[in-house]
Amino acid sequence: MPANNGNAGGTRLVIVESPAKAKTIAGYLGRGYIVESSIGHIRDLPERADDIPEKFKSEAWARLGVNVDHEFEPLYVVNPDKKSQVSKLKQLLKDADELYLATDEDREGEAIAWHLQEVLKPKVPVHRMVFHEITPQAIQDAVSNPRSLNLRLVDAQETRRILDRLYGYEVSPVLWKKVKPRLSAGRVQSVATRLVVERERERIAFTSAAYWDLAALFDVGRDEDPRSFNATLTGVDGRRVAQGRDFATTGALKSADVLHLDEQAARALATRLEGAAYSVTSVESKPYTRRPYAPFRTTTLQQEASRKLGFSAKYTMQVAQKLYENGYITYMRTDSTTLSETALAAARSQAVRLYGAEYVPDKPRVYASKVKNAQEAHEAIRPSGDEFRTPGETGLSGDMVRLYELIWQRTVASQMKDATGESVSVRIAGTSSTGERVEFGASGRTITFYGFLKAYVEATDDPSTDRDDSVSRLPNLAEGDPLTALELSAEGHSTRPPSRFTEASLVKELEDREIGRPSTYASIIGTILDRGYVFKKGTALVPSFLAFAVVNLLERHFGHLVDYDFTAEMEKVLDDIANARAERVPELRRFYYGEQGDGLKELVSDLGEIDAREISSFAIKDTDIVIRVGRYGPYLDRDGARVNVPEDLAPDELTAEKAEELFNQPSGERLLGPDPVSGRTVVAKTGRFGPYVTEVVPDDEAPADGKKRAKKDAKPRTSSLLKSMSLDTVTLEDALKLLSLPRVLGEIDGEEVTAHNGKFGPYIKKGTDSRSLASEDELFTMTVEQAKELFAQPKQRGRRAAAAPPLRELGADPVSGKPVVVKEGRFGPYVTDGETNASLRKDDSVEQITIERAAELLADRRARGTTTKRPPAKTAAAKGGAKAGTKTSTKTGARAGTK
């Protein structure tokens, strides 16, 4: 129901995107306002052929949803699941005197507002209402100061949508034909996948190098705290000892000027230094200053929530959306690090109250944006209101309070003083028994004034990196001080390949390269995970072999489409359109048709040069083995011999040794014997869907009817093993029983009754009616009389047995507040809060899934809605609705009636 605050001097209809946002805003507006939600986008380019209006179906461009022959006019249709909501909005508008479009203040929100105006066709004054936080004052200010629709923002968003549609609908079919059906390509998604693949290529090409040094524990010989400290060998006879940074990715030294110690040399040097005298040769002290971190913008929030809370980018945005819609934080899709005057005052006053006036500088801190093409003039992400609520004052719980606390701490800390202290670097010298002059180094840091670190310390991607508040004190040392080595040992190290991307580091990489928009990163990462291009090992993003094949094809034949600079340049083009420095149609024409035959259309027109087998084949170094990506997954090929590759095997782990190991594993095929009736050989095998039995059809087998028939027409019988059977113990007798299925029991009421072993267990079938069996044994023992009794009973829905206890209890869902558990279902394990169910994905396990991951799966399931059948596409009502929601003209007249 819309939020109705009565009528006082006319009715004003306010439309926002979400029901939660509508509910919050309705509570802040006075009488005379009706607040309703559009529930997101109400219309878009057609997704299915059935969505295309009849009059356009014969057009060559109709499948794209964009008229590439005439000014790249988009074909918009009202989304089938939004038609009822559009009707509701139209009905509400009939009784309204004014319309306020209160969608988000970014390009996508501006486009939603424009679509609402185009579809609703209001005859009353229209106002664009914008705000970046949902508080009583912000909403009243927005109502009092409306603006016009910004058609430049609409143009930029429409151009983005058309670019993405053309890229996806033209390039994806190439992947279907040359790699695997049902794959997808995307303007930013494919580039993100390429980044992950390139990092894995670097890991595959990487050669580790071993190097050694000495670690010492020195004592100052005085009674003080600390009295001893650790130091590392840095040089021998004036030559610097090699460290990890001195080695190339090939494992070779970058320079011959450094001394590379191996284990033998390091241990021998340690022996020669036994009993040596040491002294301090230099002490260098420098002041240490660390400035506060800027308030959060979208990408830094995603990165920090990943590091500190373990949230995925997608889940972070889902929780942040809830906080925003319920009035706890400002708008969460922003490139800005700016705080308003009221926010600066709120942060400073709270810092004074919590930490004291000595922790707050005389003047507010102002942060310049590091994003070159910052989109709109939003604020940073901060607690909403003129006075910030502490986490305890919000009444929030679960992940919502955890994310709010992160935002609150960061905002308050941004207005506090610098942390100051001192960093010290010490050099120690000694002489070996053979006269070698050695040098050790140690460093320390003390913090004398913690400043903003009292409120907030940023996490790091590398666990070996010290946090900003870490302290390592050294004794009070002076040049010439004698030292005694309490311990001296040789230590071995090896260089490591570049780390795989995590969600946090991939977000940072995309932003650093200016690829895509920060607001889209969460969905991009979600897409490449869902499509199977990337999977997770812990927090690391690992590309699949399928991703290697896709990126290989795109790099070779659509090189500039996955070029990092080209993709970043497209973002600048969109910014130029938004800022009236470029026009939509010329830019789209340049992208699609090109200037010298180098446009997208030309690239997808000639696919003859693409060798599908070559694209999906990768040689394994130092072997005659090739890994190939087939329609059913990756496999190894050696002169025609094949073996499947485990789905969870990371590409850099498929070494020559691992490939040989896979080939040497038992094939999983067992010869059981001949079928006494047909004479065919019966074997047990392992397949993609588990163990099964089948029969081998000889090439020269004569058909029973005497007619000549191709071998492909002589299909072997096949049956999956029962749950009580295993590949190692199944017998020929068992196999023959399985191959006899489905078993005919007889007839009931003139209809044949058969017993089947189905995907969800054993059952009997009569026509279109069926009944589950209590056990697998009944497949072979059930009689037609027993079947008649079973069919006479009412069909039971769901499980007949008592509900099984949950596999795990995870905690409360941050959205519903209800307990989340893991259960075993017909389709495998799933999580549920009692209202929403979500299946575990390929990379999830019952043992390791967290409440954060479960909440993410549930939120994603809610966002997709329940699965319902679409109404028939060709009924008169559906046709009329499609036509009514169709738009092929340009945005002329959009300013009319808009204030």
Mind sketching the topology for me?
Layout: E1 3-4, E2 12-16, H1 19-26, E3 33-37, E4 43-44, E5 66-67, E6 73-74, E7 77-78, H2 83-94, E8 98-101, H3 107-120, E9 126-128, H4 136-144, H5 151-178, H6 189-205, E10 210-219, E11 228-236, E12 239-240, H7 263-272, E13 278-290, H8 298-309, H9 313-325, H10 341-355, H11 391-394, H12 398-413, E14 419-431, E15 437-449, E16 482-494, H13 503-512, H14 521-530, E17 534-537, E18 540-543, H15 545-557, H16 564-578, H17 584-593, H18 600-603, H19 612-615, E19 617-619, E20 626-630, E21 633-638, E22 641-644, H20 656-664, E23 670-674, E24 681-687, E25 690-696, E26 718-720, H21 732-739, E27 743-748, E28 751-758, E29 761-766, E30 769-772, H22 778-781, H23 784-792, E31 808-812, E32 819-825, E33 828-832, E34 837-839, H24 851-864, H25 876-884
Parallel strand pairs: 2-3, 2-8, 8-9
Antiparallel strand pairs: 1-3, 4-7, 5-6, 10-11, 10-16, 11-12, 11-15, 13-14, 13-16, 14-15, 17-18, 19-20, 20-21, 21-22, 23-24, 24-25, 25-26, 27-28, 28-29, 29-30, 31-32, 32-33, 33-34
Helix pairs in contact: 3-5, 5-16, 5-17, 6-14, 6-15, 8-9, 8-13, 9-12, 9-14
